[in-house]
Amino acid sequence: MNAATETLHFVRNEQVEAAPPPRLVRGPLAWMRENLFSSIPNALLTLATIYLLYVIVPPVLRFFILDAVWVGVDRDACRAETVGRPVGACWAFVADKINYFIYGSYPIPERWRVDVFFVLLAIGVAWMLWLNAPRRGLGAIYFFVVLPILSVLLLAGFKPLSLPPVQTSLWGGVLVTIVVSAVGIVFSLPFGVLLALGRRSKLPIVRLFSVVFIEFVRGVPLITVLFMANTMLPLFLSEGVTIDRLMRPLVGVALFASAYMAEVVRGGLQAMPKGQYEGAMALGLSYPRMMYFIILPQALRIVIPGIVNTFIGLFKDTTLVAIVGIFDLIRTIEASRVDPNWATPTTSLTGYAFAAVFYFLCCWGMSRYSLGVERRLAAGQKR
Amino acid sequence: MKKALVTIAIGLAASVAATAASAQATLNAVKQRGTLQCGANPSLAGFGVPDAQGNWTGLDVEFCRAISAAIFNDPNKVRFIPLSAKDRFTALQSGEIDVLVRNSTATMSRDTSLGLDFPAINYFDGQGFMVRKTLGVASAKELSGASVCTQQGTTTELNLADFFRANNLKYEVVAFATADETFKAYDAGRCDAFTTDASGLYAERLKATNPDDHIVLPEIISKEPLGPVVRHADNQWGDIVRWTHFAMLNAEELGITKANVDQMLKSDNPEIKRLLGTEGKYGEAIGLTNDWAYRIIKHVGNYGESFERNVGQGSRLKIQRGQNALWTKGGLQYGLPVR
Hints:
The complex is a heterodimer of chains A (383) and B (339). Chain A has 383 residues and is mostly helical.
């Protein structure tokens, strides 16, 4: 035993040869080796991607920025044979029509009202979204009660304040896009929560109503609802009775969004462990208090990605109202691009590119904000 | 939350217009409301397009303004309701609009089974061809063996087949799903000729890389009479729409323009006197004032002026009068006499 231990004993008595220095582990080269060319398939994919970017990016940049025309008064500014060089995007067209894209046909002397509406909405959104804002309870009342009333009075007109009425057929562009999506978002969240609670309720009639409503609305495409509202509904009403053409799709969109929101919220409610309900009941909380203080705050946090996803989908779905003759941003661009004063080979493309930028910025903003909120609310669960 | 809902509902429900428009009372309803509700095409070059300020312009739009001028002595008492091709007739049938001026083709089935009337034709359109100048073709009958770009599943495609078969010509159809794609393909040289309604040819030509390289051939191979539409059974209202058009035609024929209409009031020509209402009571017979035609010409102008301003030489479309010339100049526009 002793002898064996002794023979295994080892003491190194010369210096170990110095190992070669490690390959670069920091700096751009090392990063590239590790992330872009770590294996042969990885390297091939990287090269393919770089080639694709090389094929796509320069022409896009050239078309939209380098060859683009930024100023001009009519189509001659954007035609290759009058300019004498290849012409890309015709941003001068967007610049000329920008007021129409924002306000539609809203009467020019009254357009300040739309600006005020945008400012009021921005205040409301900032108040609601900025988590450290003062008096957020007041902010919620402002956003869900005061703002809708003010907006209707401001945009549609209110005699006592000497705001002349402006018919909704004159509204258009970004204004309509914002109004339709704001109505959808503002109405769908509270209604969605109510419907989700209704669907999980123990009261049979409430539950039946919620289930039927949700399943029915989810079972029809939005476009069908819009066609029904704008093409069929007038035939059912007695002759001469008409409902405002903008009001009809607004109601349709709000109902539609509520049904989808309800299912998202229900997902959150079902993810709550039973112990949370039982704990709340053991404390003697009534049903509304249990929901308000214990269940909903946790359930809604879980489904923030789903809620924002629904909002983004809704925001983009608002373009469908264009099909039933409502002048949202897309429709105003469609109407302007045929203008003979601006007809060039690139006019349509420029108009659509403008719309793409607008929608991307809005959706991207919503998505970034929700990521921030998620991170903040999940702080308690981090390990 | 509920409070907000109720308020919004009330606010928007206030705009629910309850106009009792029975069969004979469109004119009364319009007068009572103080505005004419006109169904319009929101995006057809030369016929209905909003300008940068959002004001409506175009030949069809000016027709609505002419009706408004005849009734209210003000061309701006019109509320334009943008309508798609699908919901235009419903909007008229349900009474949501008073008159539809949206490049609608007058056909027998629309006139009869839809319960509509086409009181006048304010633009005779028809399918035509556009080719490159370099092709050296002067007539559609020389298009034998040509490839033709057209839009899928439209009557355009059927008319094309009929025309080439009737003339015993060979051709090849290159069809696309949308109008934009079709023209892009023609512009890129995918086919020798491009076909659609003649008014559309001129509008599309502006989008070509080199508009001057293309010509529109003289042949018109189909009939597309476009005009205002009203509900069947209100004859008085139909008369007003019809005579608005005839007043503009007669004014052109008699040389009355927006600029000289005031001097023309002193004219001794009995036809002019009857038209401008200095003689006879023709306006009262259709429920308007006797100076109804004077108002139309004063505010909008005669047919020729409106045509040239919106689609003709005064516009970028530069459409020839062709079939829309007065009957005295070989066209089809014929204003019935005021007497």
